Amino acid sequence: MKRRVVLLGATGSIGESTLEVIRGCAAHFELVGIAAYQKVEHLAQIAKAFNVKHVAIGDEAAWKRAKAEGLFDNDVALHSGAEGLEALAVLPEADIIVVATVGTHGLAPTLAALKAGKQVALANKEVLVMAGEWVMAEVKKQGRPILPLDSEHNALFQCIKNEPSRAIKKLILTASGGPFRTFTQKEMEQVTPEMALQHPNWRMGPKVTLDCATMANKGLELIEAHWLFDMPEDHIEVIIHPQSIVHSMVEFVDGSTLAHLSPPKMAFAIQNSLMYPHRAQAVLEPLNFSQGLHLTFEAPDTNRFPCLRLAREALIAGGAHPAVFNAANEIAVQAFIDKRLSFLDIPQVIEKTLAHNWAKSTKIEDVLWADEEARRLAEAALF
Ligand code: MG
To answer: Of 75, 95, 248, 381, which is most buried with the most CB atoms under 10 A?
Structure first.
């Protein structure tokens, strides 16, 4: 029987790779619902190509326009706003919900999908960074794992398999180091958004590409790994691996280390997750070792890349701090893209925002409040 997939965030780069997998494994998957925030023309193309009958549009104005212009066939149910996204997350005919939205948009649909007993495949990092405690509580209740679509976490998931946590010594997250890995502090002062938006290995959206340049992305992934695999912060190491072939490793207590390798394309992690626990023929070319592969590893420099240190500190501080790290980073990155902030000031804004007195929250509402408050304080810290 085909797995019926809902794809939230269908027009982004993860969405695109997910569609590539669904197209390539057409015998295994059927796309039953898609959502995006604003790109209605693109959504309409996908709906037509995959014969999708449920579409959600996050932005109300875009939804109205799609209706007025008749962009979708009459038999397509057009859902709108945050409720529309949630309606798709609990769609009765869906088996698996791919959450590839960005920022905070993915949180409510992820929780709704888990509560409705759906299998969730998660690419939206902020969901776990902000609300890992509550999301993982729902995952535990459901009794089956959330499937990580992030390449590093998919790699860890594959290496860990059914090993008990007492068998694991540490998780080793690999990081490409981004385009400024070899830059001196002096050279980093001159970095422009155009330079930061060029990733050496991966083709991704602008926010995550920029987060790779500051290494804030690896910081977010560290927090994500902590929640997904129930690992304490001091058992998660970050290692620079510029080739992006080894997507992460697990060191076991007996000294064995397992690594996961594939070309740096998101389709591999997505295919593995959507097929789990089975495997299907690869939709893309795998690695070719006979061509020669040179793999190197080195320790990260948290002096030149303080975002990594700040994320770790936020995780240790707990409560709302990871959400504050994430919110302040989003504001600082946008200000850098808008040329209102220099590259080296991005971590400064995050550090200033984290330095406020944040409560050890016990409720998800506290975290959502901290997210908004941190955005306000980070904006204020720009000047
Ligand atoms: Mg990643």
So the answer is: 248
**How many A from CA of 174 to the centre of ligand 1?**
9
Q: How far is CA 265 from CA 21, 99, 102, in A?
A: 11, 18, 19
Domain ranges of the chain: 3-123, 153-262+287-381
Contact 325, 350 (CB under 8 A): yes
Decide which of 3.40.50.1820, 3.20.20.70, 3.40.50.720, 3.90.180.10 is the CATH code for 3-123: 3.40.50.720
DSSP states of 338-372: TTSS-TTHHHHHHHHHHTS------SHHHHHHHHH
244 alpha-carbon distance from chain centroid: 17
Give me the tens of pLDDT residue by residue for the chain, a chain 383 residues long.
999 999 999 999 999 999 999 999 999 999 999 999 999 999 999 999 999 999 999 999 999 999 999 999 999 999 999 999 999 999 999 999 999 998 888 999 999 999 999 999 999 999 999 999 999 999 999 999 999 999 999 999 999 999 999 999 999 999 999 999 999 999 999 999 999 998 888 888 888 899 999 999 999 999 999 999 999 999 999 999 999 999 999 999 999 999 999 999 999 999 999 999 999 999 999 999 999 999 999 999 999 999 999 999 999 999 999 999 999 999 999 999 999 999 999 999 999 999 999 978 779 999 999 999 999 999 999 97
Helix (H/G/I), strand (E/B), else coil: 73: coil
Residues with Cβ within 5 Å of ion ligand 1?
Answer: 150-152
Residues 153-262+287-381, CATH architecture? Orthogonal Bundle (1.10)
CA 152 – ligand 1 centroid, Å: 5
Amino acid at 212: C
Neighbour-count burial of 161, counting CB atoms closer than 10 A to its CB (0-12 exposed, 13-18 middle, 19+ buried) = exposed
What is the distance in A from the centroid of ligand 1 to the CA of 383? 31
What is the CA(116)–ligand 1 centre distance, in A? 27
Going 5 to 30 to 147 to 224, the CA torsion angle's sign is negative
Q: Residue 218 C-alpha to ligand 1 middle, in angstroms? A: 7
